[in-house]
């Protein structure tokens, strides 16, 4: 997929937000008091670089949940890619990852970040393991996976958790995401689609104390300090 400049200029955005191409890449810009600093995707430096070097490797919760173990590097679909942070971690650990993002502006930021990562020696190999598709996984997951000629052994989901009343506590970046995407009211349909498409397992990231997504009960859970992963297993990834 590729967003040419004319496409980027035609992406519909809420009032007060705009996509700006600068020297450091594409950024989503708005009122800093409301949305914080310009939002961009940087896989080369900053938090992504720190996590790549010091994040804990395959001992990280997301890696364990997705089945990355000694000698096992499954192909993973991140069907709610967001800013690609989890996908980049998984790709940095050796997995082939298909990123699916339904919000056009976020998909454009991801594409820009991947282009820059592919040109940098520290991240080029990782970016080569990452493929991006813009589309709604809840509506057309199978078609998006097929279009990328991808083997969906594991599907990772991180649906937007429903909005809480104390909106002042919501981080500015999350506020920006809600402005663009709203809550993921179709999370049960997304889980159903993922269970149909994944050959081995589906993993769902949830706030630690939140209920599972409505639908079949997960067979396993992995719990961290603030979040957990619900695991729906079809078959073992171990050969």
Automatic annotation (TrEMBL):
Keywords: Cytoplasm, Methyltransferase, rRNA processing, S-adenosyl-L-methionine, Transferase. It comes from the Bacteria. It is an enzyme of class 2 (transferase). InterPro entries: 16SrRNA_methylTrfase_J (IPR007536), SAM-dependent_MTases_sf (IPR029063). GO terms for molecular function: rRNA (guanine-N2-)-methyltransferase activity. The keyword Cytoplasm applies. Pfam families: SAM_MT. It catalyses: guanosine(1516) in 16S rRNA + S-adenosyl-L-methionine = N(2)-methylguanosine(1516) in 16S rRNA + S-adenosyl-L-homocysteine + H(+). Its EC number is 2.1.1.242. It is found in: Cytoplasm. Belongs to the methyltransferase superfamily. RsmJ family. PANTHER family: RIBOSOMAL RNA SMALL SUBUNIT METHYLTRANSFERASE J. This is Ribosomal RNA small subunit methyltransferase J. It comes from Vreelandella glaciei. The lineage of its organism: Bacteria, Pseudomonadati, Pseudomonadota, Gammaproteobacteria, Oceanospirillales.
